[in-house]
Write a structure and sequence with these properties.
Blueprint (H helix, E strand, L loop, with lengths): L2 E13 H4 L7 E13 L3 E5 L6 H5 L5 H7 L2 E2 L6 H7 L7 E5 L5 H4 L9 E3 L14 H6 L11 H4 E2 L5 E4 L8 E4 L7 E4 L8 E5 L7 E5 L6 H4 L6 H5 L4 H17 L4 E4 L3 H11 L2
Parallel strand pairs: 3-5, 5-6, 6-7, 12-13
Antiparallel strand pairs: 1-2, 1-4, 2-3, 8-9, 9-10, 10-11, 11-12
Length: 280
């Protein structure tokens, strides 16, 4: 059985109204989560890396400065995933694999802190022309190339190399990539937010498993109460139909398996509930 910790590595702020229709026109925190999975045989794997202070340098100039102003970030050195792992007795060199839900800055800013880790991405998550693409196009997509390690291409691990197996989640979520080959951790596509968006399913944890869903939704109210983001935000999704279909699947899971912990990356209520059940 795997061990698990859910960390928060910095946060940004945004209007609640953008997260869900009917929300207040006031700012709320978006904590940036990092899932830490310790496997008895395969070692340490991370799901996302959260923020790091380098985000500020990477977004100091236009057009990335607009991105930073839209989502003001707070993250000190002690808040980083690397520092928090150190307090758990885990060195950066012990992290063997990092699965990135997607490449937005709040999920990848800590990546350079783990220079020996292999990196798994979803299909088409990294554009083929990412090194030469217009900075304005990158900024519009929430992608800051300088946050990626210079050698990232040589460290990428194709998901196709992992066995596809039945997850037990049913529906569109029935199959996933069995990362350790023993059914303890699955990576599966959760399309919609951006191309190649991924989630991680940990069936052995808690009363009925833990499902880290990244930015498949920003609040648990999306799958518990049907409270979707502001229409303008929905229009900006890479695949609006896919996004809504995934939320429908999460709603189904919530109804059928109420003890299953579904954890969106930035939902404070879900994070607190998961930590209460799992510890930490």
């Amino acid at each position: 059985m795997v061990d698990f910790e859910l960390l928060v590595a910095g946060h940004c702020v945004q209007l609640e109204r953008f997260v869900r229709r009917g929300g207040a026109w006031s700012e709320i925190e978006f904590p940036s989560t990092v899932g830490v999975v310790r496997h008895p045989g395969a070692g340490v794997m991370l799901f996302d890396t959260g923020y790091a202070p380098r985000f500020h340098a990477a977004t100091a100039r236009m057009p990335y400065r607009l991105y930073a102003r839209l989502l003001p970030v707070t993250c000190s050195t002690k808040d980083t995933a690397r520092a928090q792992l150190g307090s758990l007795g885990i060195g950066a060199e012990e992290v063997g694999l990092i699965v990135l839900s997607h490449l937005h800055a709040d999920h990848v800013a800590g990546l350079r802190d783990f220079p020996q880790a292999r990196v798994a991405l979803g299909e088409r998550a990294l554009p083929a022309d990412w090194r030469i693409r217009s900075p304005w196009v990158n900024a519009r997509h929430g992608f800051v190339p300088s946050l990626l390690p210079d050698d990232v291409a040589s460290r990428l691990v194709p998901l196709g190399g992992y066995l596809v197996a039945t997850t037990g989640l049913g529906g569109r979520l029935r199959n996933g990539h069995d990362v350790f080959g023993d059914g303890s951790a699955f990576v599966l596509p959760l399309p919609g937010h951006v191309d190649g968006h991924l989630g991680m399913w940990l069936p052995e944890l808690g009363p009925d498993g833990v499902f880290l869903v990244g930015d498949a939704c920003w609040s648990e109210l999306a799958f518990t109460n049907g409270e979707l983001p502001h229409p303008l935000i929905l229009r900006g999704m890479e695949d609006r139909a896919g996004y809504l279909a995934v939320i429908e699947e999460l709603s189904r899971l919530h109804r059928e398996r109420p003890d299953l912990l579904i954890v969106p990356a930035h939902c404070s209520a879900s994070i607190q509930r998961a930590r209460g059940v799992l510890g930490g």
